[in-house]
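Hello,

I think I submitted the nicotinamide-adenine-dinucleotide job twice by accident. Can you confirm which output corresponds to this input? Input:
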Amino acid sequence: MSLIDGRKTAEIIKNQLKVEIEEWVKSGHKKPHLAAVLVGDNVASRSYIRTKIKSCEEVGMASSFIHFDAQISEDQLLVEIDKLNSNPDIDGFIVQLPVPDHIDEHKIIQRIDPKKDVDGFHPVNLGKMMLGLPALLPATPYGILELLRHHNIETSGKHCVVLGRSNIVGTPVSILLSRKSDVGNCTVTLAHSRTKNLKEITLLADILIVALGIPEFVSPDMIKEDCVIIDVGINRKDDPTRKRGYRLVGDVDYEQVVDKASHITPVPGGVGPMTVTCLILNTFKTVKWNAGAE
Ligand code: NAD
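Support: Only one job matched these inputs. Its output is below.
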């Protein structure tokens, strides 16, 4: 079994990016600037934003944290998004999801200027992605492709089974891997909560991507020998031996499947660090596109 180390891969990409950004700034451009918007006080969201801001610092990018009270109205939030869209100092921004229930997430995403949509959730970016045109790719699927690329995992002609059809992970990664492209050319099966005979399908997978949000759902009897496993899930599991009372586990029963897999991502330290890194990659990508540099 070979570990697909997301932390190490993320470090390699960030170190390269740091050099590129240094050169960019030396050649007279301003520092790329990412803003992160948080609405309300979701503890996990705050922690995700902290990690994103730390990553900006690591690569020499500017960052801003913009916090709104959970009571902000949808209309007010849309006005704030317009301000970020027209602020020339901000190159890209994200609105950390989930937003409170009274705010329509789709309206918010659609208001973001596609050129500043570094999460890659806007329909324009998703449409371009589908057509294989240059686009800001959704950060987690982008991170998964980079993990496969950096670990030289052959995808062409392989059967990839994706568990979960969310707009941010399952659906886009299934499209990306089926495209005629560098990391792609897979035959893809997208399974979801209504899929029947799931185990029969997962047993066919050369590459299994799991994005369900169900702790340790995938057991060894569900995978074939030497399968590549990408575990996207991040779940809390009670653990009284830990100071904080829980530990993070994926959607795959890591301990049980590890010996059967040819490659596997750990949780934490697998897909998570790559998601953040790809957000930063997207920010620099849009900076260069908008400057006509690429
Ligand atoms: P989601 O909740 O939006 O969607 C879950 C999907 O799982 C749905 O499409 C549903 O049809 C499917 N599903 C549910 N039960 C199923 C079953 N029994 N069999 C087959 N399919 C089933 O999920 P999401 O936003 O894609 O997130 C999934 C997990 O990935 C969560 O744990 C989330 O925290 C994590 N996540 C991690 C990262 C990262 O960077 N590592 C990024 C995004 C999400």
